[in-house]
Amino acid sequence: MKVPAPLVAQQRVLMGPGPSPVPPSVLAALALPTIGHLDPEFLRVMDEVRSMLQTIAGARSGRATAISATGSAGMETCLVNLLERGDRALVVRAGVFGTRMAEVARRAGAEVDTFDVPWGESFDVADLRAFAADRSYRIVACVHAETSTGVLQPLEGLRELADDLGALLVVDAVTSLGGVPVEVTEQGIDALYSGTQKCLSCPPGLSPVVLSDAALERVAARTTPVQSWYLDLSLIEAYWGGERAYHHTAPINMLFGLHEALRLCLEEGLEARYARHARMARGLWAGLEALDLAPRVVPERRLPQLTTVAVPDGVDEAALRRRLLNEFDLELGGGLGPMKGTTWRIGLMGAGATERHVHLCLDALAKVLERDARAATEAAARALAE
Amino acid sequence: MKVPAPLVAQQRVLMGPGPSPVPPSVLAALALPTIGHLDPEFLRVMDEVRSMLQTIAGARSGRATAISATGSAGMETCLVNLLERGDRALVVRAGVFGTRMAEVARRAGAEVDTFDVPWGESFDVADLRAFAADRSYRIVACVHAETSTGVLQPLEGLRELADDLGALLVVDAVTSLGGVPVEVTEQGIDALYSGTQKCLSCPPGLSPVVLSDAALERVAARTTPVQSWYLDLSLIEAYWGGERAYHHTAPINMLFGLHEALRLCLEEGLEARYARHARMARGLWAGLEALDLAPRVVPERRLPQLTTVAVPDGVDEAALRRRLLNEFDLELGGGLGPMKGTTWRIGLMGAGATERHVHLCLDALAKVLERDARAATEAAARALAE
Q1: Do B3 and A226 touch (CB under 8 A)?
Q2: CA-CA distance, A225 to A328, in Å (whole number)?
Q3: Half-sphere exposure of B90 (CA within 13 A, CB side)
Q4: How far is CA B131 from the centre of its chain?
Q5: Chain B CA closest to residue A206
Q6: Of A194, A193, A192, A132, which Cα lies nearest the Cα of A163?
Q7: Is the pLDDT of residue A347 over 90?
């Protein structure tokens, strides 16, 4: 075959639902010389990644790990380790990722009850409690930040409900970790998974997973093997933990990148990072309003790091996103499922949550929609200054 | 918490069983700016990766993909997609990786018959045929290059045996791909998986998987869902293939790196690459003989890219490897399973199969073992010149 040409850098402005922009020092860490997966220096990197993850996830006990695959594998890790065939699972479906959790739990052999929430809305714990009635469950699972709808689901009350149902609480924090507060211990989360390519601003390829002590006990008490050998947390822990027993060859360079990305989170400070995401979102929302573009989610449930916007009537949204990509190097996301063709998803995640990104996006949207760019950027500037 | 310091480059000479040394242009490709997983530029990268993989694996039909996880996940992908609960699998166990295949197949609900071969030896197809008797199987599975023992298993005759058993032929090519000839179509392989961190000289994190048309038909004809959602090849193919349906966020930068690594293979030329691996191995083996160090595998079954060596009596092998790492920045591998404590594994893989690596390793081994370095490097030089 004809050998393809070497790749050339593409400078995209990443404002979709992830991957988010990756800081130069994270890219530089990715390109550090590869070392062995049992090299003492690498084991130290793993230890530091583990403790930084625990800090960022607010886990004062339990165990954090980075699974050697992307966020959806983190979801599968939590579910296949906590569930055994025939276990009952209660899963909230309010978008693509809750729906995926139910599917993955079913494939793990669980009896899954699904609590359906209209896309773009959050749910009340009281309603979920009423739905669960007096059944008992092995797990209750929901998504903290639904990447498909842009909804931030409050987690208050879920710990108590899980306790009453005899269940472990599983939370998808793929899009929330690093962008809004996630507090594993305080919120009583038993199993949390995330991705690297959202508010952590590392390329995709790893999935942070945090388990509480109760979840670890459940894994240890299993009577059947985990159906996935690759995602078997007991085997993974034997490598990440004290024994350092070979399980699989860890993605060395990806972990170098994640180490740097987590370091940048902690250097900025978590409170400052959350405040930055919130402020940029206020700027974007003010500008969108000036452009007469309507967010799909009510303000009090809207994710600062991911805004879903209704596409104006008569606009071919895919064609418009192609123009943004080709003319402005700007990537926005399209809608999924029932929101396909009618929704844009605008990300302000991690290193992408900056004033420059807010203005660039508003300016480009105004131009392709032929609306007033100046009004939008001035409205954003006022909101950003507040 | 105290924020850890940024990582500092460690310059190791990687001569264990993988990861192998990564060329600078592959590290540079890893650090290209991240772009979206549905960006047309990225889809082009995927297409090129796919066709380069097919060429390197000698697959004139079927489908190649890079699974978004490491080699062991490639193994799991092949097994969980081809096997349904209750299917019969015939698995050859001649080391760690054959043993792992049997375990993964069992966790997929298969009835597994294992054909055991002493570690460090290969098997005759006639013996496997006799073992199989007249039973029928869904798959016959074996390891082409056993990373734990250093044995190269000839694949001749396995296609015919698989046909007679009504089985698909599954081959582990983690350590063989790119180092010795792998010919999916000619050798009649139905499912092959590999890793990036061996003879392809890319960091770990992806697993090339190639399926024949017959294997793709088997996947399409399943009557039950694949137990793993993340590794479900039909869903993965909908993203890699024509529809470009979102499944999970691909590890963008890892695929940039793999693209460059595959390009380097093809630029060198596969025949030249195999010849280079073979020549370097002859140099190493001559030098080891001069050092009175005995390979564990007979020459005609010895992997050029991975040599297992008996540790001399009375030598604390782990302590010696620590010295090599600390004093020479040289990583060799220790033995696994029954070879633990008694075996070293010396890799000459991909970018690590060079004269410099041969001499460096022999020189360092001679020094820490207090043997004649000059005799060893001269013997190696003679063999390299042949």
Answers
A1: no
A2: 51
A3: 24
A4: 27
A5: B251
A6: A132
A7: yes
Exposure class string for A171-199: b at 16+ Cβ within 10 A, else e: bbbbbbbbbbebebeebbbbbbbbbbbbb
The stretch B268-291 carries a mean pLDDT of 98
Rg over alpha carbons for chain A, rounded to the nearest Å, is 21
Half-sphere CA count of B177, side-chain side, radius 13 A: 31
User: Domains in chain A, please, with CATH?
Assistant: 32-266 (3.40.640.10), 270-385 (3.90.1150.10)
User: Which pair of structure tokens corresponds to residue A339?
Assistant: 């929101």
Q: Is A158 exposed, middle or buried (0-12, 13-18, 19+ CB in 10 A)?
A: buried
Q: Give the count of beta carbons closer than 10 Å to the beta carbon of residue A360.
A: 17
With a CB-CB cutoff of 8 Å, which residues 2-61 of chain B face chain A? 3-4, 6-7, 9-12, 14, 16, 18-19, 21-22, 25, 27-37, 39-41, 45, 48, 51-52, 55
**Helical H runs in A269-354?**
270-290, 317-328
What is the C-alpha to C-alpha distance for residues A150 and A183, in angstroms, rounded to an integer? 20
pLDDT reading at B55 higher than 90: yes
pLDDT for A118 beyond 90: yes
Q: How far is the alpha carbon of A30 from chain B, nearest alpha carbon, in Å?
A: 6
pLDDT digits (tens, 9 = 90+) for A196-242: 999 999 999 999 999 999 999 999 999 999 999 999 999 999 999 97
Q: Is the pLDDT of residue B242 over 90?
A: no
Q: Which residue has the tokens 């690759």?
A: A230
Q: How far is the CA of B351 from the CAs of A11, B13, B286, in angstroms?
A: 30, 11, 21
Give the CB-side neighbour count of residue A149, counting CA atoms within 13 A. Answer: 25
Q: Give every CB contact of residue B385 below 8 A, 6+ residues apart in sequence.
A: none
Smallest CA-to-CA distance from A102 within A84, A90, A86, A87 is with A90
